[in-house]
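does this look right to u?? LADIRMRS version
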Amino acid sequence: MELRTASSPKDVKHYTTQRLREEFLIPRLFFADEIKLVYSHIDRIITGGVMPVKKAVALTAGEELRAAHFLERREMGIINIGGTGKILADGREYTVGHKEGMYLGMGIQDITFSSTDCENPAKFYLNSAPAHTSYPTVLIRPQGEPEEGVVIVKEENKVELGSLEDSNHRTICKYILPGQVESCQLVMGMTSLEPGSVWNTMPCHTHDRRMEVYLYFEMPEDAFVMHYMGEPEETRHIVVRNEQAVISPSWSIHSGSGSRNYTFIWGMVGENQDFDDMDAVANQELM
Ligand SMILES: O=C(O)C(=O)C[C@H](O)C(=O)CO
Ligand SMILES: [Zn+2]
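got this back:
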């Protein structure tokens, strides 16, 4: 597991491009038959990727957590950005299709990931945070019919906003949040930009009470997103490419403009789970 420490905005404004990338960018998450995990001291979020190809891959706590199993004191959200795969959680198997997700509650002991087709492997993107109680483990589908152990994203949690005129027409699909999928602190979802729209989270915001991680995907090899971070009056950019993630401290804006449209997964942890608790930054204030 890779460890990242927290940073002060006073220091970050002096960082070079390379240092910014070392601290905040996660350049690669998906390795065949491996689990890649990055542990950040910022709210102790773990960001990870699992791409099982030829075999099933088991999640273990590793040395760093000093726990008997990964979710002994944690919860986890997962969204599959690859082909159909399976997650085996304490003996119950869930088939997780493209863009379907899972919430795994604290206390689940044995977790194994596999792919249905090794030619089109699953790519499980995960965010995990410390937890204090156990909420039900569920499969999450953006649409479909609810069944036992399966939650369908409510229409009210698919929010279309922006416009083509402002180059920010997009739909925010909230997977894990109170009233739909209960969790201790993790809030997670996916935002899709319409063709011709390139801006996410613009006008931008901060939320001192939560940190956030973005995973950008559905981008061709030559495409990129200029991801903006920093205090509103002291912004910096990080060039982010397909399937790369970027960590945003609570004090930082997190917004991007791409060379074309793209999709991204956002995950937040911290003080509250109130999606709308944001400190809006007016476009005129940005520097
Ligand atoms: O495009 C957007 O706007 C977002 O997706 C915003 C993120 O969900 C976010 O930053 C939530 O705090
Ligand atoms: Zn945010």
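DSSP finds three helices and 25 strands in the chain. idk if thats expected tbh
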